[in-house]
């Protein structure tokens, strides 16, 4: 396959040449190509915003692994989105430390501000709201992540101002 070739799975999903090179670069880092599954999924998600089913065999082909290997990682890892999401994804930590630090109040404030619940996307496609396990910011709970940034502690009264920064 030449350097500019696109990887097209049987059901038509296209991995852009730049992404294919990035996935191959990750693959070549590891003794076992399976170890590169998560990075490959992140590369595809960065471009498309989520990872459709059709991307799985295409990624597997580039890595030289079975589709089940890629699917297993995609299913296990909560930061890989398997359905379309909004332009910004809000992940609200519901693990123990945050739960004990007003998680429910924060969740309710987000729902009220956005008019959606967990698993939903605002009508304008701006935000998707999802629960997530520990974000590693337990000393700053209640914590949430928007796109790649972690915030905490976030008081219910901070929500409107925080969201305003995301177009
Ligand atoms: S428990 Fe919420 S960040 Fe760890």
UniProtKB/TrEMBL annotation:
Listed PROSITE patterns: COMPLEX1_24K
Cofactor: [2Fe-2S] cluster
Record has Metal-binding as a keyword: yes
Keyword Metal-binding in annotation: yes
Pfam families named among the record's database cross-references: 2Fe-2S_thioredx
The organism's place on the tree of life at top rank: Bacteria
Keywords for this protein: 2Fe-2S, Iron, Iron-sulfur, Metal-binding, Oxidoreductase
UniProt similarity note: Belongs to the complex I 24 kDa subunit family.
Protein name stated in the entry: NADH-quinone oxidoreductase subunit E
Gene name linked to the record: nuoE
């Amino acid at each position: 396959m030449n350097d500019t070739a696109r990887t097209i799975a049987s059901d038509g999903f296209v991995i852009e040449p730049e992404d294919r090179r990035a996935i191959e670069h990750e693959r070549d880092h590891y003794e076992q190509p399976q170890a590169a599954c998560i990075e490959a999924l992140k590369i595809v998600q960065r471009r498309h915003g989520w990872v459709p089913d059709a991307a799985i065999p295409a990624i597997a082909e580039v890595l030289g692994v079975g589709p089940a290997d890629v699917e297993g990682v995609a299913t296990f890892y909560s930061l890989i989105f398997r359905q379309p999401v909004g332009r910004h994804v809000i992940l609200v930590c519901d693990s123990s430390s945050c739960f004990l630090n007003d998680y429910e109040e924060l969740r309710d404030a987000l729902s009220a501000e956005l008019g959606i619940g967990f698993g939903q996307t605002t009508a304008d496609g701006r935000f998707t709201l999802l629960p997530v396990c520990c974000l590693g910011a337990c000393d700053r709970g209640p914590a949430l992540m928007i796109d790649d940034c972690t915030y905490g502690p976030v008081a219910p009264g901070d929500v409107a101002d925080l969201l305003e920064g995301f177009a």
